[in-house]
Specification:
Helices cover 30% and strands 14% of the residues. The chain is an alpha/beta fold. The strands form 3 sheets. It has a 3-stranded parallel beta sheet, covered by helices on one side. Helix 3 packs across helix 6 and helix 6 crosses helix 7. The chain binds glutamic acid.
């Protein structure tokens, strides 16, 4: 059973690129006779704007789009707002930590501030060199509330994107150990997105090509969590 999703962030008005992504996700789900999930990605508290969720959903309906599961229609995988799904992210992080794949990092980096929003081109920042990795999860005098990072092993991930073609990436060499949770407790987009795509049984992700560079991280995380990543 095809299950697609559209996952807007309520950080402002629906923009044209999001409308195009939503239309294509809708077309793909409807053409396959599958289901379309609408998931609101509202975990980056400071960036969320009151009223933006309602206005984005109104705009999507005005365009003639509909969805089978979502915040106001409900569905078997509710809730459909990430801000109401923290327990699932806690559980995923604990599973990774139990396998020694998580460590505290109190380095100061612009990317730590930005990780709860999906990275669009240029947002990924430089590769994290792994400074805090040897210290693991041992408490120490923090320079600032520590983030939690994933310890990424060198391995080539291949994402065979149906439109963009194959993307071959060694995540350890390209982005390094990426952030799963910020020091203020907010979960990173990468973790929340993967946990939800797995939990909601998503089989195909249709979204802007500006998120292509996130796909290898998401495939890696899905596999570490014991799931089958969606097609992209
Ligand atoms: N919420 C993300 C954005 O609006 C999209 C994430 C995704 O589709 O994976 O940029």
């Amino acid at each position: 059973m095809y299950r697609g999703r559209f996952a807007p962030s309520p950080t402002g008005d629906l923009h044209l690129g999001s409308a195009a992504a939503a239309l294509l996700a809708w077309l793909s789900a409807r053409a396959a006779g599958g289901r379309l999930v609408l998931r609101v990605e509202d975990i980056d508290g400071p960036r969320v704007i009151a009223g933006a969720e309602a206005s984005q959903l109104d705009d999507l309906r005005w365009l003639g789009l509909d969805w089978d599961e979502g915040p106001e229609v409900g569905g078997p995988y509710a809730p459909y707002r990430q801000s109401e799904r923290y327990a699932l992210y806690d559980e995923a992080l604990a599973r990774l930590a139990a396998r020694d794949l998580v460590y505290y990092c109190d380095c100061s980096r612009a990317e730590i501030a930005a990780v709860s929003s999906a990275p669009h081109p240029g947002d990924d920042g430089p590769r994290y060199p792994g400074t805090c990795r040897p210290l693991g999860l041992r408490p120490r005098p923090w320079k600032r509330p520590p983030a939690r990072r994933l310890a990424v092993s060198p391995r080539v991930v291949i994402v065979d994107d149906a439109l963009q073609g194959p993307l071959v990436q060694d995540v350890a060499a390209t982005v390094g150990d990426f952030v799963l949770q910020r020091g203020d407790g907010a979960y990173a987009y990468q973790l929340a997105c993967v946990v939800d795509d797995l939990a909601m049984g998503i089989t195909e992700v249709v979204r802007g090509a500006d998120l292509l560079s996130s796909a290898p991280r998401q495939v890696l995380l899905a596999e570490l969590l014991g799931g089958v990543p969606p097609r992209f």
